[in-house]
Amino acid sequence: MAPQLTVVGSINLDLVAKVERLPRAGETLSGASLERIPGGKGANQAVAAARLGAVVRMVGCVGRDANAPDALRGLRDAGVELALREVDSPTGVAIILVGDDGENQIVVVPGANADVGDFTSPGNVLCQLEIPDSALVEARRQADWLCVNAAPARALTVEADLVVANRYEAELLGEQRLLALTLGAEGAVLVDHGREVARAAPPHVEAVDGTAAGDAFTACLVVSLLEGRDWEEALRRACAAGAVAASRFGAQPSLPTADEVDAILRQ
Q1: Are 150 and 169 in contact (CB under 8 A)?
Q2: Residue 184 pLDDT > 90
Q3: d(CA 50, CA 187)
Q4: N or C: which end of the chain has fewer CB within 10 A?
Q5: DSSP 242
Q6: pLDDT confidence of residue 174
Q7: In sequence order, what E strands does 41-194 have?
Q8: Phi, psi (5° rounding) for residue 44?
Q9: Is the pLDDT of residue 231 over 90?
Q10: Strand 124-128 vs strand 4-8: parallel, antiparallel, or unpaired?
Q11: Angle CA(86)–CA(87)–CA(93) in degrees, nearest 5?
Q12: Nearest-angstrom CA–CA distance, 175 and 252
């Protein structure tokens, strides 16, 4: 049976400018191309989990504006069940610069994501930190099992069953029950109550855009664990999913299917 997952998180429209290189402070660059791509860490992880075979429900907020349909397009295409509220605030927007080397700069305008609340989320729940702390507290109160992707970096107000964080985010967290520490090109480590229990390295890919690599990693780790895979295999699959996403342009368009994860692991 496919794992069941509720994602409580952000929904954005990404305005993505492709540039030859990222600008220096105070510098203006021209010659960029611009695309409108569905995004938001919550929506990205919901789409990723659905493509990986989970049955996914998305809890979030959008505005009553022209950006909302574009922001929701990827969720609808992936077959995610939508449990949304429309609010007076505008739909969230992320302004993203992507260089030819795959590096990026991101500024998020939260908009309607600041209004996430008043929801029902029993069972397995995945959250990120582009929503208010009050939403995390409510998710913890209702969830049987809770994973928090601690991004963007801030201290946690809840105790999660699994936390996913990079080096900088982990500095704010202290010891966690179960922590998946992402290390970029070095892969990831799974730490259980301060003790390393698994380590994995990503397959080599040509980096194109790292925007949703962390979202692919998080969703794949969660889905793999809910499928009953052991820690080492789940971490290995998560690293592979992140690598596939980094090798493609855009957030949700880059997210791999389970078959694509299997294929790169066979190489």
Answers
A1: yes
A2: no
A3: 23
A4: N
A5: H
A6: 84
A7: 55-63, 81-87, 92-98, 104-109, 124-128, 145-149, 162-166, 178-182, 188-192
A8: -60, -45
A9: yes
A10: parallel
A11: 90
A12: 31
Rounded Cα distance between 104 and 85, Å, is 30
What is the model's pTM? 0.93
Amino acid at position 67, single letter: N
What pLDDT, on the 0 to 100 scale, is given for residue 31? 87
Residues acting as catalytic residues? 215
Report the sign of the C-alpha dihedral through residues 84, 150, 46, 144, in that order: negative
Q: How far is CA 88 from CA 28, 68, 135, 196, in A?
A: 34, 12, 18, 46
Dihedral-angle region of residue 127 (phi above 0 means left; psi in -120 to 50 means alpha; beta otherwise):
beta
Q: How far apart are CA 39 and CA 11, in angstroms?
A: 6
Farthest-apart Cα atoms in the chain, separation: 53
CB 130 within 8 A of CB 149: no
Write the CB contacts of 13 (distance below 8 Å, at least 6 apart in sequence). Answer: 36, 37, 38, 39, 67, 70, 71, 91, 92, 93, 94
Whether the per-residue pLDDT at 210 is higher than 90: the answer is no
Give the Å distances, CA to CA, from 217 to 16, 26, 75. 21, 33, 18
Q: Which of 160, 233, 164, 246 is nearest to 207 (CA)?
A: 246
Residue 215's identity, in one-letter code, is D
**pLDDT tier at 156 (50, 70, 90 boundaries)?**
very high
Q: Output the pLDDT for position 223.
A: 98
Percent of the chain with pLDDT over 90: 88
Report whether pLDDT(211) > 90: no
For residue 52, CA distances in Å to 3, 22, 47 come to 10, 32, 9
Q: Give the per-residue pLDDT at 34.
A: 94
The residue whose two tokens read 């985010």 is 169
- Contact status, residue 96 vs residue 13, Cβ threshold 8 Å: no
